[in-house]
């Protein structure tokens, strides 16, 4: 059966981008695939995380998965550091991936910024750990946002090189699954920048825990331009912020951008923002309320993650052992 692996980092306040670009799609996929959904805490520490916040954010990402409708019985839901095989396979992949491959990764360049010398080594080899996450389960499909496509290509390169180097078809080449309109939700302050958990400005993102007032305020303050809403998709030249808001509306309402243009074309952005606020509050409020219910019962979240880690480990261990045997590690 096809097997899906995907994850979100507990690296801050979950955003609408994480929801529309990833979590919402998983809810659909759980009916057709064997799914492993991970809270990738080992990825999160590639950049500094306050320990207490990391613990809290880990539960919060799990709470969001559950609140969005992911069934922890049907799927495996766990946090990465609870299955040590991820780190073991990642080390082997550190020895398979080439420096030149990692040097091409644009996310490292974006996240390390100008101060590359001071970035953690973990941030540099992050894509190798991501490859290990997927291939540890011989994952065949990976639903990701557009921003993760390059890392997934690297995971395929690693799988292929490993198979070639050792002359055995151990790993499948995982396929990306990229969905619909909101594959890249942009910042509310700068339509050329991705909406991110770690953006220093709260006003750049809609958070999954934001209440109705916060959502309304952020949408009201979102950057636009003085022109009315365009009535066709050709009217977005130099209007990245306008396009982003309309894309978000379309994604939340399951409408194509063309349809949003047809419905609101010619209206002022002040009016359009009211409609966007209404749909955002209607779709997100039930999720944030449910997230809070889980956060008020951390023992329940922990029990779900513990059960998931046991089930993940049961799949991972035989695959890791197979890999170790192929590499030639002695089993004394
Ligand atoms: N803005 C986005 N639009 C669409 N999809 C997005 N994703 C993230 N941001 C957007 C998707 O969410 C999944 C989990 O991402 P992640 O937590 O592993 O890391 P990220 O992509 O680096 O997300 P952030 O929010 O930008 O985190 P920080 O600020 O910590 O770096 C992925 O499938 C991603 O595509």
Average residue-wise pLDDT = 95
Order of helices and strands: EHEHHEHHHHHEHEHHHHH
CATH superfamily of the largest domain: HUPs
- Please state how the strands of the largest beta sheet are arranged side by side: 1-2-3
Overview of the structural elements:
There is one protein chain. With 332 residues, the chain is mainly α. It has two domains: 3-177 and 297-327, 3-Layer(aba) Sandwich (Rossmann fold); 202-293, Tyrosyl-Transfer RNA Synthetase (Orthogonal Bundle), CATH 1.10.240. Helix content is 54%, strand content 7%. The strands form two sheets. A three-stranded parallel sheet has the order 1-2-3. The structure holds adenosine-5'-tetraphosphate. Residues 8-9, 11-12, 15, 17-18, 21-22, 144-145, 147-148, 183-185, 194-198 line the site of adenosine-5'-tetraphosphate.
